Amino acid sequence: MTISLQDVRAREFPWADRGDTIYLNHASTGPLTVSAQAAMDEFTALRAEPWRISKEMQFSALDRARALSARLIGARVEDVALMVNTSYGLNLAARALPLAAGDVVVTSDREFPSNIYPWMALERSRGVTLRIVPCRDRLVDEEAILSALDAPGVRVLVLSWVSFETGARIDVARLGEACRARGIWFVLDAIQGIGAAPLNVADLPVDIVACGAQKWLLSPWGSGFVWIRPEVAERIEPVDVSWMAVRGSDDFTRLIDYDFTWRDDARRFEMVTLPFQDFAGMAASLAVMEETGFERITSRTQELATRIVEWATARPDVRLVTPADPSRRAGIVTVALPEAGKASAALSARGVVHSLREGGIRLAPYFYTTDEEVEKALRILDGCVQGNTSE
């Protein structure tokens, strides 16, 4: 029997029906599900009496989080490694890919900082050149990116799948095919897209995908995953070496039988010890999403985003920053309107949780958000544009 979205909302987000908060800020921090809280509380209670935690119980939390993450993106579980944030995956890519002085990394100029600084660090440490391509109207200029890929020495393209600022979604297939044709690695920061839009890595020419789980995956801080294409994983080695990255390390009775042979799967990139209780929470939230249906979640999120897009395009005094085309956005819709700071304050005063980013109002509803909640937020913005901050 398929669970209804209303039942998921009532069971997992009971605060949502109190009436004092409309949460449209999943692009910042997603709320934990009740299931995640319960899983974390149970694990933490056991942690207070660690003799009650078996090895199987401890590591099954990681196994479950890894398997659910893989199913979410259409990957083999062997190609997924758990990590504590998106930055870890991006740093893994920057430091493990075999780059040398004179190599060029291409990116865009309005990326989130975690997608810039690891590559800037390579400029200092290895003499790699980071080539930053200007956006056009705040959006990634894909034509300019494609032109930049033809320059000598380009080895890596690194971009966000969905912009944190504008909500614009790049054409991963098009850019990835261009990279593959040129022998260029394609690294994707996917934290603002996975969960809000479908991503099947088996069908896409991308090499490394990094995704923290604290936003659209409704999971704890300190949880996330990285996917590495098998052909790429075979060519790179971990830079930070975990004691459980090697073959045979699951046998705790032979820890000093040193054998520096990497595991055959992506777990060689995991930095154990991981926060087991957080990954138990992550697995619980991903299980809720799987029960609800990943396709239903992304479809409903797109419906809500489209309503905001329709509102913005119907008003001559509001500029839609996010692309109107559904294939070029996910769950974020950013709008620019006069006196955005005052509009942001008006939303906050009425319990509408959102973000103000680079002068734009960023709204990020999710599958359990109701139509009425979105309409209330839009009525408040209507009043702001008309000069009347009351509903």
In N-to-C order, the SSE pattern is HEHHEHEHEHEHEEEHHHEEHEEEH
Trace the largest sheet across and list its strands. 2-8-7-6-5-3-4
The N- and C-terminal alpha carbons lie at a distance of: 40 Å
* Mean pLDDT value: 95
Summarize the amount of helix as a percent range: 25-40%
**Radius of gyration from CA coordinates:** 22 Å
Report the principal-axis shape: globular
Q: How many strand segments? A: 13
Helix count, per DSSP?
12
Structural category: alpha/beta
Instruction: Determine the strand fraction and express it as a percent band.
Output: 5-15%
Q: Give start-end ranges of low-pLDDT stretches.
A: none
Query: Major sheet: size, sense and barrel closure?
Result: 7 strands, mixed
Overview of this structure, please?
With 391 residues, the protein is an alpha/beta fold. The chain has helices spanning 5-12, 34-47, 55-72, 86-96, 117-126, 142-149, 172-182, 230-233, 276-292, 294-313, 340-349, 371-385; strands at residues 22-23, 80-82, 104-108, 129-133, 154-160, 185-189, 208-212, 224-228, 319-320, 333-336, 352-353, 355-357, 360-363. The strands form three sheets. A seven-stranded mixed sheet has the order 2-8-7-6-5-3-4, sandwiched between helices. The longest helix is centred in the C-terminal third of the chain and has 20 residues, at 294-313.
